[in-house]
Write a structure and sequence with these properties.
The protein is mostly helical. The protein has a domain of about 110 residues. Helix content is about 75%, strand content about 0%. Helix 5 runs antiparallel to helix 6, helix 7 crosses helix 9 and helix 10 runs antiparallel to helix 12. The radius of gyration is 23 Å and the shape is globular.
């Protein structure tokens, strides 16, 4: 397989053949984005404008706090808080707070949107789309990648759906049929494995199976199922 800048991280992740390769790429993206924001990007006016506007979700704020660079985090939060304060002031002034229910609803919506947006989530999602698109491109163009793709342990439900959705518009009918068969076959096989592992776990509580040793996958059946189904 010929390597290019866009394909290297994808092929490296798929070569591991364990877990969901696209989840692994997303996790790396999140980590890179966190260090980017807390590092040199903190002083980039364009980035700060976006972090001020979007803020961060609780998950990523917690991760930033754990990185222990509290001065960077404080500076980022200081300007974001100021942005929210200015936003509220402008809303209150323009709506005159004691105005109509519609005015209050718009203020509430603004505050809700501000609390739910996240720079890291947005940045990760944008790069993640490119990885999904490039995965389809590699599958379409490279026979050796198709083989590696078919040998994956699983691809989570979220990324399976994303790949199938894009494949519909990017592949011709013949290739789409092959891709769909590969994806659905992989999904069905892993769902069956999860179901069998869960059955093994639940059956271990039956007194008739006292002393029966669980396999590693049976012991982690609940965690594996939650990860696969909910993409966390």
């Amino acid at each position: 397989m010929s390597e290019t800048i866009y394909s290297i991280p994808i092929t490296e992740s798929f070569d591991m053949r364990s877990g969901c390769p696209l989840c692994r790429l997303r996790s790396n993206l999140e980590e890179t984005s966190l260090h980017y924001v807390m590092g040199s990007a903190m002083m980039d006016p364009d980035v700060r404008q976006e972090t001020n506007r979007l803020g961060f979700c609780h998950k990523h704020l917690s991760r930033m706090l754990s990185m222990k660079n509290k001065l960077s985090l404080a500076l980022i939060l200081e300007t974001h808080v100021k942005h929210v304060e200015t936003l509220l002031d402008s809303q209150v002034t323009s709506k005159r707070i004691f105005g109509s229910k519609k005015d209050l609803s718009e203020i509430a919506s603004t505050l809700k949107d501000t609390s739910e947006s996240c720079y890291i989530c947005n940045r990760t999602a944008e790069f993640e789309k490119r990885y999904v698109s490039n995965t389809i491109y590699l599958w379409k163009k490279d026979e050796s990648f198709r083989k590696v793709f078919s040998e994956q342990e699983f691809i989570c439900l979220h990324h399976s759906g994303a790949l199938l959705s894009l494949a519909e518009s990017e592949l011709d009918s013949k290739r789409l049929a092959v891709f769909q068969a590969t994806m659905t076959g992989m999904t069905k096989d892993y769902l069956e494995k999860l179901r069998n592992d869960l059955s093994g776990f639940t059956e271990s509580f039956d007194h008739r199976n006292t002393g029966k040793k669980l396999s590693d996958s049976e012991r982690s059946a609940i965690e594996n199922s939650i990860y696969y189904l909910s993409n966390i």
